[in-house]
Specification:
Elements (H helix, E strand, L loop, with lengths): L3 E4 L13 H4 L3 E4 L8 H5 L4 E4 L6 H4 L7 E4 L9 H6 L3 E3 L6 H17 L1 H9 L24 E5 L3 H12 L3 E5 L12 E2 L2 H7 L2 E4 L13 H6 L4 E5 L8 H10 L2 E6 L19 E3 L8 H19 L10
Helix pairs in contact: 5-7
Amino acid sequence: MKHKIVILDGHGLNPGDFSWDAIAALGDLTVYERTAPEDVVARCNGAQLVLTNKVVIDASIMAQLATLRFIGVLATGYNTIDIDAARQRGIVVSNIPAYSTPSVAQHTFALLLAVTNRVEHYTRLNCQQGKWASNADFCYWDTPLTELDGKRFGIYGMGRIGARVAQIAMALGMEVVCLSRKPQDALPQGVKKVADEEFWTTCDIVTLHCPLTPETTEMVSAQVLQRMKHGAILLNTSRGGVINEADVAAALRSGQLAAYAADVLTVEPPTADNPLLSAPHVFLTPHIAWATTEARQRLMDILVENVKCFLAGTPQNVVNG
C-alpha cells in the first residue's frame, strides 16, 4: 500500500519549472499550489506524510490528523510547525538545511550594492527617461556613491550564511566583525568577535543572519538603532520579525539610518500600512534570496532524500528528535 503524501503549498518552491515526479514515485502524491488555513485538515486527512513551507501545522491540526507520521518542511526555518506537539505525537519533522547558503549570501550583497551603487536607478534614468543622452557632461550622478573598501562590516549571526557573507565582505576589502556566541577560534579567519557595544556603535554596515526566536524578536528596535553609527546601513535577509519595522522606518526618516535593505518582512505579503513601504531609502525584495534556480534544485534534491530516508526508517535532518 502506498503512503499518502500531500504538499500543501508547492507553488512557492516549484511554480512549474521543476517536476514533482521524484516525490510522486515514493507514494500517492497530491500537490496543492496554496492552502488556506481552514483547508489544511481536510486536505491532509488520511495522509502519512505532509510537506509544507509556510502553511502552519499546529497542535490543534495535528490532533485531527490521526494518520500523520511525517512533516517535511520545504525550508530551513521550521517556526510554522509546533515542534513540541509533533514530538509528543511521535511525528517526525525534517527540514532542508544549508541549501540556500550561496544564494542568500549573494543576495545580501545585491541589496548592499543596490544601496551603494544604485545600478537600477541609473539604468531606469538612462534607458527609460533618456537622462544620459540629454546630459551636458560625459557623466552625472544624483545619489551618493559609496566605496565599500575599508568599511566596518558587522555580521549578527555566524552560521553558514554569516560565514559565507564574511568571506565576500573580506574579498571586497571590508573589516569584518561579528556578534556571535561562538569563540574567536571557531570563527572564519579574518573575522573579529566584538562585544555588543562595539558592534552596534562602530559598524558602517550591519547585516542580520540570525533565526527568529523569542530572544531575537524585534531585537533591532529604537534603543538599538539609537546606538548605531549615524548614517549606517542595515541589511536583513533573515526574518522580518527580528526588527521593529516602525522603529526602523522612523530611523530612516530621521537620517539615523542611511538605508534599510531587506528581503523579508514581519508579515508576508505585507499589509498596505506596513511603515517600511512608505519610508525613505528602503530597498525591498519579495523574499527571493533563497529562490535561485540552483538553490531550489538543491532543496528539491534534499526533500526527496528526506522522504526516502523517512520511508526507509532512517529519517534525516530531523529537528524534533
